[in-house]
From TrEMBL:
<feature type="signal peptide">
    <location>
        <begin position="1"/>
        <end position="24"/>
    </location>
</feature>
<keyword id="KW-0808">Transferase</keyword>
<protein>
    <submittedName>
        <fullName>Prenyltransferase</fullName>
    </submittedName>
</protein>
<feature type="domain" description="Glycine zipper 2TM">
    <location>
        <begin position="33"/>
        <end position="69"/>
    </location>
</feature>
<dbReference type="Pfam" id="PF05433">
    <property type="entry name" value="Rick_17kDa_Anti"/>
</dbReference>
<dbReference type="GO" id="GO:0016740">
    <property type="term" value="F:transferase activity"/>
</dbReference>
<dbReference type="InterPro" id="IPR008816">
    <property type="entry name" value="Gly_zipper_2TM_dom"/>
</dbReference>
<dbReference type="GO" id="GO:0019867">
    <property type="term" value="C:outer membrane"/>
</dbReference>
<keyword id="KW-0732">Signal</keyword>
Amino acid sequence: MNTLHQSKLAIVMMALLLTLSGCSGMSEQDRNTALGAGAGAIGGSVLTGGSTMGTIGGAAVGGVIGHETSKPE
């Protein structure tokens, strides 16, 4: 059981590392768009009780807000 737990932890850590390395070349506006979409998806899911449409709608709204708040002047 202990080795199974360690294997799962190793897989999660590798996935996290790969995900974060993909953001290294992003501009500030791209990062804010992605963060806004993620936060919006979580918020939409929580507010609608896990509804798929609520999650997608929250991601869309959050992405737009994140994109627009960091527009270059």
